[in-house]
């Protein structure tokens, strides 16, 4: 569909319209309306009046690119990066940082209410990052042959295409990574289509080059504090660190647990987890290599479920239906779910809380990704009803879209 007839204005691809923005959707796009027909526009703020050009028309909405800000918000600021608006890495550099925190909180609270029916009062204010710029310790730059200019572009994907924005510096990356970008540019990949991962290793931790570690060292202490506080508040004795990586959370909470176990499919990460624990003289836990879904049953059998906390820190795609069903069946006293994807998190929490098995006690959002749409959340689930019958097979639980 390429055209929508509204009451007075046809919305067609290429049409230029004036739109007033009344909300920011999850993902960072502004929400405007033309005679009640929704138009999504990037890089705008609530209350702004903007001129846009329609780029896509669907049955119930259209997308547009920003042409000009006619009436700007008092919360609009000058982006620090000259590539902002073209590069797909950031969505909020035009927004005052306090406004970013406020909008992220609203988006998370709205999302949890819409997907899971959770009270917005359960979502704490977003914990700010002390360094809103120059915080990322890991980035991935891409190379792409620019045929019209007959040169190799090195940088990040555009926000609106698969083309690479050629750049010399990333304003949200740590300075040491920008030095590495310069080295890549001086010694470029032999051809286009290659990716180069640049990272700074955390001090005091052994991390294999390709293994996961949180990408913001500056807010890491607050993330640890949030998870520790929720575990301490539960009064539980035992801890299972699922998707444990190099053992970060279990090592940081080992002093609060009588015994703990970690599981991770990355064999190199498990070796590092054991070394990280040994270096800190931690002896009350163990790390097991394997698929979390397959090993979680045996790990849960080792500890008394009524005194056990399970920490989940899965990939962005969330937990498998099998793992979620297992947790519903075994019913540990607490689940602390750490996620950088609020929509996936809300979906999984909805499944865990279905039929009153668990209840959501609190969500602590942390701005591990300033200037972007992303936000880290720590969700605290508590066992609600210990006398419920078996919850049934995973096939009986449908995941909401």
Q: What share of residues is helical?
A: 10-25%
What is the CATH architecture annotation of the largest domain? 3-Layer(aba) Sandwich
Which class best fits the helix and strand makeup?
alpha/beta
Morphology: globular
Unreliable spans are 387-401
CATH class of the largest domain: Alpha Beta
Distance N to C terminus: 24 Å
β-strand percent reads 25-35%
Q: For the report, how would you describe the main beta sheet?
A: 7 strands, mixed
Mean pLDDT: 92
Compute the CA-based radius of gyration.
23 Å
Topology as a string of helices (H) and strands (E): EEEEEEEHEEEHEHEHEHEHEHEHEE
In CATH terms, what is the fold-level topology of the largest domain? Rossmann fold
In short:
The chain is of the alpha/beta class. Helix content is 25%, strand content 28%. It folds into three domains: 3-71, OB fold (Dihydrolipoamide Acetyltransferase, E2P), CATH 2.40.50; 104-128 and 216-396, Vaccinia Virus protein VP39 (Rossmann fold), CATH 3.40.50.150; 138-199, OB fold (Dihydrolipoamide Acetyltransferase, E2P) (Beta Barrel), CATH 2.40.50.1070.
């Amino acid at each position: 569909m390429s055209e929508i007839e509204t009451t007075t204005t046809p919305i067609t691809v290429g049409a230029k319209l004036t739109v007033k923005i009344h909300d920011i959707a999850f993902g960072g796009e502004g929400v405007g309306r033309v005679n009640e027909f929704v138009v999504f526009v990037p890089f705008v703020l609530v209350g702004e009046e903007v001129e846009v050009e329609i780029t896509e028309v669907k049955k119930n909405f259209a997308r547009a690119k920003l042409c000009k800000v006619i009436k700007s918000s008092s919360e609009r600021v000058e982006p620090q990066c000259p590539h902002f608006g073209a590069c797909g890495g950031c969505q909020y550099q035009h927004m005052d940082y306090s406004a970013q925190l406020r909008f992220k909180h609203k988006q998370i609270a709205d999302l949890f209410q819409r997907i899971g029916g959770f009270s917005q009062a359960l979502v704490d204010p977003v914990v700010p990052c002390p360094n809103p710029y120059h915080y990322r310790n890991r980035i991935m730059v891409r190379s792409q042959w620019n045929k019209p200019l007959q040169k190799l572009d090195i940088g990040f994907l555009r926000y609106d295409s698969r083309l690479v924005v050629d750049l010399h510096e990333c304003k949200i990356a740590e300075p040491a990574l920008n030095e590495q970008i310069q080295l890549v540019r001086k010694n470029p990949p032999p051809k286009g289509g290659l990716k180069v991962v640049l990272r700074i290793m955390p001090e005091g931790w052994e991390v294999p080059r390709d293994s996961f570690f949180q990408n913001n060292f500056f807010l890491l202490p607050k993330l640890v504090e949030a998870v520790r506080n929720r575990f301490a508040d539960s009064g539980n004795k035992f801890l299972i660190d699922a998707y444990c990586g190099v053992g970060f959370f279990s090592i940081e909470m080992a002093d609060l647990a009588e015994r703990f176990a970690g599981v991770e499919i990355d064999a190199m990460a498990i070796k590092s987890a054991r070394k990280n624990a040994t270096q800190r003289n931690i002896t009350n836990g163990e790390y097991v290599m394997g698929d979390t879904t397959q090993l979680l049953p045996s790990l849960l059998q080792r500890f008394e479920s009524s005194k056990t906390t399970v920490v989940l820190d899965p990939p962005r795609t969330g937990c498998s239906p099998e793992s979620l069903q297992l947790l519903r069946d075994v019913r540990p006293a607490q689940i602390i779910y750490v996620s950088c994807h609020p929509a996936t998190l809300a979906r999984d929490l909805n499944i865990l809380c279905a039929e009153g098995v668990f209840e959501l006690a609190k969500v602590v959002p942390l701005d591990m990704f300033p200037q972007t749409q992303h936000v880290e959340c720590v969700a605290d689930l508590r066992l609600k009803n210990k006398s419920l019958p078996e919850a049934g097979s995973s096939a009986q639980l449908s995941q909401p879209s």
